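Quick log. Single chain, no ligands specified.
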Amino acid sequence: MMFSINVGRRLGLLATACLLSVALPATTAWAQKTKTKDAPAVQAAEPVAATAFTLDIPEIDAVDSNVDDDTLRAIFSGNVADNADALAGLTATSITIPTITITIGTTTTVDGDAHQSTVTFNDLVLTDVTDGNAASVALAGWSVDAGDEGTGEFGEVSAANFNIAGVLGLYGLVDGDTPFEMQTIYTDVSFAGGTFEAPDLSCSVGSMSVGELKARPLNTSFAETVSLIKSLEGQDDPSPETIGTLLRIYGDFFTAFESSPATFDGFDCSGEDEGRPMSFSIAGMTMGGMSPGIYPSIAMDGLDIAVDGDGTIKVGNLTIKEMDLSGPLAAIAAAPAALDEAWFMANARALVPAFEGFAFSDVVVDIPDPEADGERIAASIGNFDLTLGAYFNGIPTDVLTTASNILVDLPEETDDEQLQQLIDLGITSVDTGFTVDASWSEAEDTITINELSLTGADLATVALSGTLGNAGEALFSLDENEALAAAMGVAIRSLKLDIDDAGLSDIVLARFAADQGSDPATLRPVYAGLAEGSVIGILAGAAEAQKVGAALSAFISGKAKHLTIDMTSKDAQGLGMLDFMAAEDDPTALIGKVTIDATAK
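-> predicted structure:
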């Protein structure tokens, strides 16, 4: 399913307009064009790529300002760097700009036509400004007009306690009083949302809000960072010194911010994709609070994509859990000035962030099968969760993965042997789930398998649990050979198998009975007796043979629906690879090394 290029272009235009509303021209790359009696219009002196920018500020109303109108006009027209000190010390009862108009015109053509877009900001007001701190800042609304490409109308944007001096200090345009301390940049930010219209697309954008953002000055100024990035243009192989500098800038950036959670009320779009009606929407999003070294979680609710005659995808919730970057940041802090390939190879695992995982729920998919003409993929997932924790040398040592209500309609035939077996049994759809739950104990050198299970609704549940020994920290060594040797030394101390029959045996026996011209009731005791005799024969000499055989017989005969088989190594160290290699030639070699128990109920 692909949206047309025109739709993508218009969404890009909408995104550009949104960015412009948040960040008015902030560098000298956008020179000013003003309309006043004394100041003639000035065209942008340095066009960016093939695009020309002009900016029009007809009027500025500054009340009790300690900065003159010409300087204010230069600042709001984009020349912040040359007037940063004046802006950082700005004091005024209020500053009102009724209109700011930005015109973006391409000097090249798209589809044979030149394009021009206009973004207009209405009633920008700063109140109670003291020494570069505004009690409030508000924009009454803004609009974008891209001609044939589309138009947009957006509502109020506002914030309280806007620390102008703090923003300038963050990017290194002025010296901060407390360079290593977090300062509040703004509080109570809100955006009222709006609408966007294009010939084949119509969108309604919801409101956004965030409680507070704090930041500290970056160790490398914004100008220095931009200059460094520009110096890389045309370089296929940057120097190790440059790579080291860039990596430290990256690390510094991720420790420079702290924020409250942010919310977004989503969007709803409808239109056409290659002549077919389509719609896509998100009911809402929440971003967790940022803190130094922590990339926050992001949760999205109510994703809905539909293309008429093609298919639908719905996701009730998708959550990307937070990511702890403290490990990679520590590695960067301890790194030498020059970082070459050898350093990255040696520290690859140290640069892995501690990602907590992700989750999604209420997923419904109905789309064409790209690998089979005329077939469709129709499936749904109730819940899926991946939780990772206790990272050691870049590897999570606590893993919990669960899934439930995975509903899939089976095709009439398939190349997958396991699926074909289910189809041959007359099963047309499956409702499955699984769990993987395991953790490593550094103190005990063990891996505990809490649960490895697979469930089929109205079929069966198979669950495995146990304990692995001799699992020391070498198992997670940065040295691959050491880790491989440690893995070969892991031993099985205990295993437990639980099987719940919820109807699978009835289906299997019914099929076997039909093939043999018999009935399930007749076959069950026959198969039960064969299984009991086989187990007793294999476990000959073991004290538990009769008990295990009887439990298996009761389960297969249908007298019991739950079977549990426990195996425990008689050696406290467990069964190692050598034990299993010996059992390849003589499976009975393991019988004397383990205690086996079984129950059926």
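The first strand starts at residue 33 and ends at 34.
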